[in-house]
Amino acid sequence: MGNRQQIDVDYPAYHNGRFPYFLSFSYPCQKRSVYRLFDVSGFEAGAAGNIIDCVFYGVVFSNPAPPALATMFPDGGGYGTLMHGLVVDMFYFPLCEWNWPDWMPWVGGEHFIFFRPVFNLADAAISVGMIALVLFYSRQISEVPWRKSSQLAADDAMHDNGKSS
Q1: How many other C-beta atoms can be found within 10 angstroms of the C-beta atom of residue 27?
Q2: For this structure, is 10 an active site residue?
Q3: Which end of the chain has fewer CB within 10 Å, C or N?
């Protein structure tokens, strides 16, 4: 496969948490940078976080009604079975809040909370990593050899379909 490099999974870095770093070097791009490393690592860490949530958390935690907190290893078992967990690492941290003065048009007298969204860290890592890869590495992605051959085959198929009708 041209310039594609092989990686050795038995390398000691796999066991000390730096596997995404070496995995990023298996991608067939000519220029490698620390920024791409962070993009790919964020994507992989987010995916791993979501998998861990879904696989184990149904067995490990209880699912009480809000505002009660979940219990780890409850007596009656978790709220679900293995592979049926829910994502639980949600964040909500309003940075500031205030009441708008009554004299303000449209918003007067209303309560305002800055940064109201509740978000999942794993999903944020996946989204930021993918957006950064698309924005900063789209030229390198378009130069991947097997992508060019696939694109040529798709263009030929489209051209052939256009002639037959």
Answers
A1: 16
A2: no
A3: C
Q: Which residue has the tokens 């979940």?
A: 70
Q: Which residue in 39, 75, 102, 123 is the catalytic one?
A: 123
Catalytic residue among 89, 102, 156, 160: 89
3-state secondary structure of 133: helix
Collapsed DSSP state (helix, strand, coil) of residue 86: coil
Question: In the numeric block, which tokens belong to residue 104?
Answer: 């303000």
Find tokens 């310039």 and name the residue: 3
What's the pTM? 0.56
DSSP conformation class of 83: T
**pLDDT in 10s for each residue of the chain, 165 residues:** 444 443 333 333 333 444 454 444 444 544 556 777 778 888 888 888 888 888 888 899 888 887 888 889 999 888 888 888 887 777 888 889 999 999 999 999 999 999 888 888 888 888 988 888 888 877 766 666 666 677 777 778 887 776 544
The span from the CA of 1 to the CA of 84, in Å, is: 39
| Integer CA distances (angstroms), 99 to 110, 118, 129, in order | 6, 21, 36
Q: Indicate the residue type of 162.
A: G
Is 155 designated active site?
Answer: no
